[in-house]
Each structure stands twice: as structure tokens, then as C-alpha cells.
Amino acid sequence: MARHWPEFAAAGKxxxxxxxxxxxxxxxxxxxxxLSAAELADDAVIARRLAGQRPYWRPGSAxxxxxxxxxxxxxxxxxxxxxxxxxxxxxxxxxxxxxxxLYLGLPxxxxxxxxxIQRWSATPEQEAAFWADVPGPHSITRIGHGLNSTFGYxxxxxxxxxxxxxxxxLAVAVHRAAITSL
Length: 182
Known about the structure:
This protein is 39% helix and 0% strand. The protein is mainly alpha-helical.
């Protein structure tokens, strides 16, 4: 990673390999303080934040999923090596040649295929049971899924099967920002 992205070597990340990132063993699963909605929509911003971030554990010693950051790191290395984004390389070398109907960032022409998330239909008892087992806000699980943000996630905004107006607007904003960066 650091050979192609020297800034990434900061804070104990100098030995992390692309294999470590792709196999979820890098220890870099999020950023302290989380990421705002605007940051989540911009891989370049995520990459800048990750460059100075310390790993959450010694690289290579454990597994942990970084839901929003893994492919921001991959994208940064690909951009520095090829001058193109991950979406461009994927489209040119994989999606188009193999005729795949699978996108990294839904193109505007495919917008009609986007479906909103369905509203959570849990009973009060099911919801209570769910929240009784949710890890704390600064747990590795919450950090890896971007739920340690300083912009105020609450259980009304996130959970399995969630769909609330403020989240729907966030999903559309993130989605639109992602496709305009293609």
C-alpha cells in the first residue's frame, strides 16, 4: 500500500499490504470520530482521513470488516497506479468485456432500478431484543460499519431493515454523489 500511497504509511500502517486490506486484516476499518454523510460519498476524502488513521489492531493479527473504507483504500491505490478510478478499471476490464450487469456506483441511466430500503416492521419486543444486543458506539463492529460518526446516528436511523426519511435522503445523496464521481 505505502509503496504506491506514501501518506498511508503513517501511524503504524507502513507494512499493510493490499492483500491485508482485501482480506480484512489491515486493522484499518474506520476513522476515529466516524465519517459524515458528505465524507461517505467521497472516496478521496475517506482516503485522506485514512492516511493518518492508526489501525484498530496490529495489522495481520485479526479480521475485521471496514464497510465504508475498504474500497476507498483500494480505489486510492488503483487511482495512484493507473490514473483511473476503481469504477473505471472495473468497467473497462471486467464489467464490459464480460457483459456483466453489475455496477460499482449505479449509473444515472440505471436509476430506475434503484429500490428504497423497506421500513423496519419489528414488534416492540423484537426491537427491544435487537437493541439489547447492539455493540456500543465505539466498538469495532460499529466503527467498521461507520456507525461511530459524530453526526448523530441513532437507533431510529440504523438497524436491520431500517427506512426512515432522513436515512432515505442520505442514501439518495450518497448514491447520487457516487455516480457523479464516475
